[in-house]
Fold this sequence. Notes:
Elements: H1 22-28, H2 31-39, H3 43-54, H4 60-75, H5 77-97, H6 106-134, H7 141-153, H8 156-168, E1 176-181, E2 187-193, H9 202-207, H10 223-278, E3 286-288, E4 295-300, H11 303-309, E5 316-319, E6 325-330, H12 336-350, E7 360-364, E8 369-373, H13 385-399, E9 405-409, H14 417-433, E10 437-441, H15 445-452, E11 459-466, E12 472-478, H16 487-497
Helix pairs in contact: 2-3, 2-10, 2-11, 3-10, 4-10, 5-6, 5-10, 6-8, 6-10, 14-15
Amino acid sequence: MRVFLLYPDRDFNLKGELPPQTEALVKDLELDIVLDTMAQGDSFLRTVSRQALMSSLEDPQVIRYRQMILQDCLNNPDTVRELYQIPVQALITKQKQWLGIFSLYPSSILSSAVELLEMFVGLLRKMRRIVDEHGEHFHSAGFQRFFNMIRQELDEAYFVEIESHLKELRFRDGVLISAELGMGNEGQNYVLRKPKRAKGNWKERVFSKRSPVYSFSIPPRDDHGAKAIGELRDRGINSVANAVAQSADHIDSFLNVLRVELGFYVACLNLAERLAEIGQPICFPDPYPATTRVHTFRGLYDVCLALTVNHPVVGNELNGDGKDLVMITGANQGGKSTFLRSIGVAQLMMQCGMFVGAESFAANCCNGLFTHYKREEDATMKSGKFDEELGRMSEIVNWLKPNALVLFNESFAATNEHEGSEIARQIVKALIDRRIKVFFVTHMYELAHRFYEPGLTNALFLRAERQEDGQRTFKLREGKPLPTSFGQDVFQKVFQQR
């Protein structure tokens, strides 16, 4: 049995290698806030969420496959959580009781495997009941395939047969084993035999004439004899013990994968419910191939900020279709960095098949997401801050591929504006020439003006809005770069408060 709830043709690899610069992404985009909300204190859900969020999908069809499944989950949260508890309960019970399956003795392996299978059968029956009761409410291709598989493979005939086999494997009437005599009359080719069913009623069985047999009994205190008989029994049931253990392992693997893949959707439910409590909208984005240039949204907000302040935050609109460069300038503390973070978080959420924090959202997939943010001064640095920025940029360049997305936040501002602007201009131009999409937040007027002046058709310029009285709306509008960031507003506001 295969789950296939995260991919249409393969299982999700929880231990897969994460993309480069994962730690920088988590730090710069403040993803720990999102992950903690998704996990709700469950370390396993956090691990699954982090792996899924950072393992970006690049195929719009696979993204839509997950979106449809997640939509089913949002419509049926109680059923999904009930299904998720089945593999969770299996794990808890297994950890408490069934350790004999790791024994070296066939008798212990068989006994533990039988007990494990009996526990699994009970949980699989519960799964089948949930499917029968609620399956009609799920419409995605992923859930329909999964439920049809459960109906076909876990029908009543399956349960009757497996319960019958498990009852026989208890060997309540003893073990029937055949063997051949080899060299020196030593036993070989041990085979476990299925006992014949006794015919007739109990009177006929008791008083019927029995075939003569050779037999012997082990004295109660003959430890060596008992050990020898035990070894003979283990030889006879060895192959059966391995087969039963493999069957138990097969079901166990299925339930483990189910726990991982349903765990992702349960974590998404946690996040969606928390955003609903805050009063923030979510939507399912429209993903486009990486080779296109689509970036249009309405009401996009920073999910991390909303979760932090615990109330609705300002959203933004953008029509960036056909653009390779989005240059963001404007007033200090006007929401530029928050906007940039919302771009990165939404891209990751879209490319792992999730909803995004917006009223509507459409974007092309990217072949890798990278951030180059300014860093605070580090006393352990062996070189200057500007050298550190260039070093990080050099590392990013080694990983970049066409149609990647790079987010710059106040990069290359550790030197004078003329030098920083020229270096940034050359880097951005080289990236755009290699078909890499760039969002760049900067206070360097010279940098922004150099890109604005030629009137590039593949560039978009946004400016943080500032009202005449100096108030910030935290909205970004299309606008020409200005030679001031209105730092005086911030200065006056701080010192007036004092």
